[in-house]
């Protein structure tokens, strides 16, 4: 593996870490409705457990209401039960074929808990990025040890890897700040 390949793969892995962090943020509840909130809820479908999005159309009715439209007639009650029994604290209501899931307003205490959770997720993402930096630096040192790269190239490569790491850590901080703002907005 060359220095350029190490840098390229490290940056790609860091991008994947940020994408995973972004996906985790969509699952954290804010005062606003988000169809991604129901991604973790599974429903029994002919003996197998599947995500709601595979048996129904999940969309937004308005800023505080998610609508779930089952594709089969008999699935409405099962979907409603699955949402009610999930740990999201939601109370769905059926209106014919359509299931409405209103988002309850969050208390101040709950908002603070959510911001702590966002910060914790952000810290975990930063740790993942820093671990990737460490692995890349070790790979560069291994190349120097095997005489496939000079010490000057090592210094340049480590500086480049640090710049990429800093860029990703700043992106994570910005995502945490915007999510906190979203949560604290009443």
TrEMBL record:
It is found in: Cytoplasm. Transmembrane segments: none annotated. Pfam families: RRF. Signal peptide: none annotated. CDD domains: RRF (cd00520). Its main location: cytoplasm. The keyword ATP-binding does not apply. Residues 133-160 form a coiled coil. Keywords: Coiled coil, Cytoplasm, Protein biosynthesis. It comes from the Bacteria. Residues 21-184 form the Ribosome recycling factor domain. Belongs to the RRF family. NCBIfam families: frr (TIGR00496). Responsible for the release of ribosomes from messenger RNA at the termination of protein biosynthesis. May increase the efficiency of translation by recycling ribosomes from one round of translation to another. This is Ribosome-recycling factor. It comes from Caenimonas terrae. The lineage of its organism: Bacteria, Pseudomonadati, Pseudomonadota, Betaproteobacteria, Burkholderiales.
């Amino acid at each position: 593996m060359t220095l350029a390949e190490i840098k390229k793969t490290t940056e790609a892995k860091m991008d994947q870490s940020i994408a995973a962090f972004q996906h985790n943020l969509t699952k954290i509840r804010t005062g606003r409705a988000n169809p991604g909130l129901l991604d973790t809820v599974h429903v029994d479908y002919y003996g197998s457990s599947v995500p709601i999005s595979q048996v129904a159309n999940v969309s937004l009715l308005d800023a505080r209401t998610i609508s779930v439209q089952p594709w089969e007639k008999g699935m409405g009650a099962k979907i409603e039960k699955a949402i009610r029994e999930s740990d999201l604290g939601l109370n769905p209501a059926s209106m014919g074929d359509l299931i409405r899931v209103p988002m309850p307003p969050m208390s101040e205490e709950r908002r603070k808990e959510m911001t702590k959770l966002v910060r914790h997720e952000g810290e975990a993402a930063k740790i993942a990025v820093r671990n990737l930096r460490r692995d890349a630096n070790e790979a560069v040192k291994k190349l120097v040890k095997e005489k496939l790269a000079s010490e000057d190239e090592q210094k340049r490569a480590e500086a480049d890897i640090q710049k990429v790491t800093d860029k990703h850590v700043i992106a994570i901080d910005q995502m945490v700040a915007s999510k906190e703002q979203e949560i604290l907005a009443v």
